[in-house]
């Protein structure tokens, strides 16, 4: 008889590989710009070439694990960058990647694609309110509080493990 309880014996949270949004953010920060230069919606932001290579490297590492230590289930955010990371990393493992809305990035509302500098410049009262409340409790206009999205993510894991724009990888207790 196994001492393992129901659910996975191992849970890995994997952040997506480098995305075009990460590159746009770095460029905006470096230039002191108030907005990111992106021509797609946040859910549609793809991986950069480096991000695709990172996902491939994860796949190589996973494939090299002993079979009984490899993931047996994968859940991913439906956002393109996370889903592509999960699909590339598990391509050689024969695992179906399932999406779960609770793993998506939080909604930043009217501050979507804005840098911190841009928010402070254009919306100083909101920036002060965020500083007062803290990033996990602050809810941007038209968006959601960090705590709200984190709690929604945690709802899918009994031990209150959270993930956002991530993929969750688990190993079945029966395979250990």
From TrEMBL:
Signal peptide: none
UniProt keyword list: Hydrolase
Keyword 4Fe-4S included in the entry's annotation: no
InterPro entries hit by this protein: His_Pase_superF_clade-1 (IPR013078), His_PPase_superfam (IPR029033), PG/BPGM_mutase_AS (IPR001345), PGM-Related (IPR052765)
Xref: Gene3D superfamilies: Phosphoglycerate mutase-like
Molecular function GO terms recorded: hydrolase activity
Enzyme Commission no: 3.1.3.-
SMART domains linked to this entry: PGAM
EC class (word): hydrolase
Name recorded for this polypeptide: Histidine phosphatase family protein
Naturally occurring in which organism (per UniProt): Blastococcus brunescens
Lineage: Bacteria, Bacillati, Actinomycetota, Actinomycetes, Geodermatophilales
